[in-house]
């Protein structure tokens, strides 16, 4: 036997070094390399963070600069900020002072030019006058008799009276011309004083002193200019009179007639008379016509006298009038002065400085009675030569005024009752341009307080609430204009294809409330409300139809039959056929249509209602008399309105109405009299009362027969109401 194989020898045991520490598993080259990469990544991230911070700072600076550029580019199209105290704004008064100075300078230059021309003309005229005066004066002097004359000689005899008259004319003309020259010199000095800078610490004080000086100076300088004009004419007239008088004396001083001198004198008289007649004619023309180009100081004086004869004299005057700039009277004077100077501004650049102070609430406080001044200032600020920013500022004033009215409604309401500001705003700001502002203004009228909250809403919400404003069971004030403008706005949006905008407006209110408001508002007098109404009822036609039906069950006193017809016309549009629910009693609508038919909706409504009557259970109808009347109108081929125009009924509607009438009449059975406490007539009673309106039975249409057969299966006989008749739907086949 062989011996078993020897097993392998086990490996020798490894001697453990108890003195060595345990080895770190992360202390590897790969891990150290990973740590180095992470450190580099962190350094890169820090650098990127610093770079991004710099980029963020740069972008922020660029954004700020871009905002500044955008703001600077749009500033000319944006309104100026509202002035908290416009009458105390130094910017306003600095611009107003320059306007006043420019206007005064223009008038002063005109006066100075007139005086300079007068001085030049007087100098030439005096030279000519002196040439005629010297010989006339010599003619009055005595002729010397010789050298032996002494002081003891008697005085010379009195010269002829004719020579004295000629000399008097010349001397008076000379004196008048010299006085005119003196007045011209004084006038130039006074005009120069008007152009000097008034004393004052602020522009407001200087402006008021300037205006006070101007008003005082006008009382002297304007009459002075008139005196200069007429004194110069009088001086020339005296000279011509003396010249013609001297010529007449010369022509008659001979023993025979001097025809040449006589003719010359006659021509002179004729020319002088022609000039006088021309002056008189132009003066009368200026008195007769207000816009005459010949208007002068004389015509103004005569017109003023004529006007005073028609008015009562005002005797209450103060001897001395001081310049007021404080207190209520002073503030009113400040406002009126500022508006007058704005209206007279010639430099459009100055209006940029005064436009922020143009305020309607300031006018309510201090401008009562000066609506014409306010209108002139508005027209000047809105002129074509002003900047866009000025015009936008004026347009924004109505919103700021409305905000002030909402804050102080009692004050605004009391002030608006006694002035014409509402009419002024209505003529210059269309309601459609700012519905919230106008809602606030309308809220100041009686019974319109609910519009005040509407005026505080955004534009779309405001329009939506205005559409519902008549859906209230109380007495309302005059708000028809703003409601009509809201409807026209929505109507225009639908017609222009902006249905999303109208949808956004209607999303703020319930459409049933809009329909209810439509049915209560006074008749809308514009041509095509159907565009908006069709859009209004398009998505909720059934709900709106039921709402109209419920509304007509007990309509209020202010129901608008025309507007209800417009709504029915939109509901029964042929483009969107509306099947009427057969289980609903539409007697209110049938009663309305039968008693208030409208040409715009008759054909559509009659077609839909006859279809409904041919299919519904007639026993559910509560007003059978109106149903009968409606069916009679449908079958009447001569149904016309008050103007004689024929109502158009479709052939299908007329056939259905005739079939209903013809089928119901033969199946009437008399019942015992009902209790007198139930007097409401049924459809059968109405048919029995008017048998002549039912035509001979003809073959009924299939739809009507099927409908009536369906009713027969429900009940063999049925009572319409507590009337004395009974309809038995039998033997139809």
From TrEMBL:
<dbReference type="InterPro" id="IPR045338">
    <property type="entry name" value="DUF6535"/>
</dbReference>
<keyword id="KW-0175">Coiled coil</keyword>
<feature type="transmembrane region" description="Helical">
    <location>
        <begin position="223"/>
        <end position="245"/>
    </location>
</feature>
<protein>
    <recommendedName>
        <fullName>DUF6535 domain-containing protein</fullName>
    </recommendedName>
</protein>
<feature type="compositionally biased region" description="Basic and acidic residues">
    <location>
        <begin position="65"/>
        <end position="78"/>
    </location>
</feature>
<feature type="transmembrane region" description="Helical">
    <location>
        <begin position="113"/>
        <end position="134"/>
    </location>
</feature>
<feature type="region of interest" description="Disordered">
    <location>
        <begin position="65"/>
        <end position="84"/>
    </location>
</feature>
<keyword id="KW-1133">Transmembrane helix</keyword>
<dbReference type="Pfam" id="PF20153">
    <property type="entry name" value="DUF6535"/>
</dbReference>
<feature type="compositionally biased region" description="Pro residues">
    <location>
        <begin position="1"/>
        <end position="14"/>
    </location>
</feature>
<keyword id="KW-0472">Membrane</keyword>
<feature type="transmembrane region" description="Helical">
    <location>
        <begin position="265"/>
        <end position="287"/>
    </location>
</feature>
<feature type="coiled-coil region">
    <location>
        <begin position="35"/>
        <end position="65"/>
    </location>
</feature>
<feature type="transmembrane region" description="Helical">
    <location>
        <begin position="168"/>
        <end position="187"/>
    </location>
</feature>
<feature type="region of interest" description="Disordered">
    <location>
        <begin position="1"/>
        <end position="28"/>
    </location>
</feature>
<feature type="domain" description="DUF6535">
    <location>
        <begin position="93"/>
        <end position="248"/>
    </location>
</feature>
<keyword id="KW-0812">Transmembrane</keyword>
